[in-house]
Amino acid sequence: MKKIVVLFCLVLSFAxxxxxxxxxxxxxxLELKTEVNGxxxxxxxxxxxxxxxxxxxxxxxxxxxKNTKLDGKFQEEYxxxxxxLTNDSMSTKRLNLTLFSLKEFIDTYNSNSDSNxxxxxxxxxxxxxxxxxxxxxxxxxxxxxxxxxxxQFGGELEVLDVNQISRHAVFLQLKHVLEQDELQYxxxxxxxxxxxxxxxxxxxxxxGNVKFATVNFSSATVVTNIxxxxxTSQMSQTAFDVPFIFxxxxxIRLTENxxxxxxxxxxxxxxxxxxxxxxxxxxxxxxxxL
Length: 290
Hints:
The structure is a single chain. By secondary structure, the chain is mainly β. The protein folds into 2 domains: 16-113, no CATH class; 126-289, Porin. The chain is built from 3 helices and 16 strands. The chain has helices at 2-14, 77-85, 99-113; strands at 21-25, 28-36, 40-47, 50-57, 63-65, 69-70, 73-74, 126-137, 150-161, 168-177, 185-200, 204-226, 229-241, 245-255, 258-269, 281-289. It has an 8-stranded antiparallel barrel. Strands 1-2-3-4-5 form a 5-stranded antiparallel sheet. A two-stranded antiparallel sheet has the order 6-7. It is elongated, with a radius of gyration of 27 Å. The two termini are 38 Å apart. Residues 1-18 have low confidence and may be disordered.
């Protein structure tokens, strides 16, 4: 548990915080972020666990966008207000009281009203990165009394939001751990995970991984000794787990579209027991933008 707390504290200590300013609205002192700045501004924040949105026309004060519920029906006051502020120049029929929907609407209005305005609302675009890697592992979640290491290799598909230069990503990983004479165990693992970039620069990123779903196709040689009779048998197993395995990694940029990757994997897991050996799972790889 201490490891988990330390990891999350590290993530939080580097978390990106957007610039915000203090405003007084109807006697409330509010910290708000400016999302759109133009003829019509959009400001917002999460206050007491609720999203609150405000607009500010030119040479005017803040006005809150509301959507109150009366007799089980939403009143959609924000649509009426925006129709008035934009002189009914744009349809609000499909406008939702969400950050991106409001940002896109107000951004479009500002673009139509001012030829010099620079648009800021861009729909999310997913970026895919494909990579290969190789390294060694002592497979810390299996019985390995001599703490032996074996080779491993694999590939990975990573998906992230390129427009937002996202710190968040998901990945699908396929890896194979080879067996050796002293440790006759091998596995092919298909894993799905989440990645958070603590440091997220163009040339370098440092991140934490959590692998939350895995399917393993394993093979092991089992030796038994019953009444001084030693027997050897081959055992194969397919197992689905939700292990929450944590690790760390880094991407070092080589070219505009390629990276060297370094990873220290299987540091600990929430739902798998370590079998007595601290992780020696290291990989180095190469990945590129598709």
